[in-house]
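Hello again, I could really use a second opinion on something today. For a while now I've been wondering how a particular protein folds. Please have a think about how the structure follows from the sequence. Here's the protein in full, and shout if anything looks odd to you:

***
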Amino acid sequence: AGLAAFAQLQGKELSYNNLMDADGAWRLVHDLPGPGVVIVKHGGPCGAGLGDAPSTAYVRALACDPVSAFGGVIASSLPLDGEAAARIGQLFAEVVVAPAVNQEAREAFLAKKNLRVLTAQRPAAPTPRLRVIDGGLLVQSADAGWDESWRVVTERTPSANELAALTLAWRVVKHAPSNAVVIANGTATVGIGAGQPSRVDSCRIAVEKAGAAGLSLAGTAAGSDAFFPFPDGVELLAEAGVSAVAQPGGSVRDTEVVEAANRLGIAMMFTGRRHFRH
């Protein structure tokens, strides 16, 4: 079951890195709040988009960071059709994985003979994660669900549009290497900062990525995979146009961070759960 039971329709032999990124992309695309497409590169997401048509979702995912998407892995929770395949074929990608690929799409992909095209079943039930350390092995329970208690901690409550954006940002940030901050609107990510020792640097990178892609941050929402240790990250996001933030809470400076959000007019929610992927 899951990705391990994939069928390869075409392309070169899969490498270790191909399989790791395909696994990450396949898990992420099925964690989205609706049907969509994600692009993963070197272990982290560089775009996610929602849509009822795979071509629409793909365009939204690609727009987040088209530079980083080059050479990435594309996963769709929707069956791929000819239009989606034609759009994907305009980008150099290593792997494409979807639940099904129709005949028109297969014919379009043939022009990219080295592209690895896979079909797979939905992800299997979560299993413990294994990591090798010097002389031993670590076993960790999977970050498997959304058993959270979201609560508003600011004077302002997020709007329906902000809640949709918060949900998408939070779902994606689970799959990004910590420290991670994801900015999104209701249908796509618009900026991703991940893998940084400093959370404020992840905020800065997410904002800069959106600017480089020409995407507006006005009215967007951000998800942070762990708490903000200082108000500086929230201040940076607000200055860029982000209007709502989801974070776990739990910092000794939570009060300062919430006060900063109130001062800036930001709606903030504590999720009660961190992701903190390492």
Summary: The chain has two domains: 3-119, 151-270. Residues 16-29 form the longest helix (14 residues). The helical segments are 16-29, 54-64, 82-88, 103-109, 160-173, 199-212, 232-240, 254-264. The chain has eight helices and 14 strands.
